[in-house]
Amino acid sequence: MTAAAPLLFQPFKLAGLTLPNRAVVSPMCMYSSVGGLANEFHLVHLGQFALAGAGLIFTEAAAVSPEGRISPEDLGLWGDNHIVPLGRVTDFVHAQGGRIGIQLAHAGRKASTYAPWRGRGAVLPEQGGWTVIGPDDQPFSDTFPVPSAMTEADIHRVTADFVAATQRAVMAGFDAVEIHAAHGYLLHQFLSPLANSRTDSYGGSFENRTRFLLEVVRGVRAVWPMHLPLFVRISATDWAEGGWDTAQSMALAALLDREGVDAMDISSGGLTTAQQIPVGPAFQTPMAAQIKGVVPDLAVMTVGLIDTPELAERILQAGEADLIALGRPFLRDPHWVQSAAAALGVAPQQVNQYARSGR
């Protein structure tokens, strides 16, 4: 690529990892695991994006603890038996010249629920469900499980689970790790006053509500190789009065920058049923731009209804973000990168087997 090439197709360096382009496959739950194990579905699903030239591929949320799964069918990385099946996926992606990251997560009070096509609300214990945990005993909604309020020992245990999962991610051959602190899951629950009514050192003030996430980040950063990028995904706002908001996200970004985070993935919402989201094309990008303004040395990734390569390129050219994460566009067209290249007038590298598609 020349300097005149569209920014979407210019390489981007994160820590010691160079991405061939700025199009990222966003983490998307597939609800297709048994016992948290990756299988042939994950190999084919994630492998197709490497064949098609995505700059970076993220797995779906992988639970760091069994009780941290959103559904019984979620991917996991809480046990050593998860390493080899995920290693098959990373080996395939690397063989195609691709880069792949894993999103580490704990669902907290939004755990033990049905996969979307299986039902709604809580999965009962007799149907494979379990007791869930959260900052306090507030459920997400009337149909979701009622959580048990976490003790400080629980908090320290889950922090250790994130660290152990990160060590497994190293062994499985991942190029990047993302800590999931968005969409109303456990770390986001601690951040938001709407889900965190604690009166100890993990609740109340901004400093206390961010404490759990920062402890997880420090633990993960200590065992994740410095030459590989560490992402954190946040919901920049709850879209609800009295909740987590963009001003707090900007303050958090400055803290994460000092903790050695390499990139922030800016999404929004998911914390409360009272949210009022003004959905539209690239509706979350202005928040990404605000955060980038306070942490210019930190890479920022934007996501959310960025369906066209022209819109993605405009965001990059305006300096509002460094990376473009796409979910549904990649589901609709796994070869979105190739289609985007044609639309922007460039010819990105392709695996040899697919090279004749451009002729």
UniProtKB/TrEMBL annotation:
Pfam family, one: Oxidored_FMN
UniProt keywords, alphabetically: Flavoprotein, FMN, NADP, Oxidoreductase
Reported cofactor(s): FMN
Record-level Gene Ontology MF annotations: FMN binding; NADP binding; NADPH dehydrogenase activity
UniProt cross-references to SUPFAM superfamilies, sorted A to Z: FMN-linked oxidoreductases
Name assigned to this protein: Oxidoreductase
Domain NADH:flavin oxidoreductase/NADH oxidase N-terminal: 8-341
UniProt cross-references to CDD domains, sorted A to Z: OYE_YqiM_FMN (cd02932)
Family matches, as InterPro entries: Aldolase_TIM, OxRdtase_FMN_N, YqjM-like
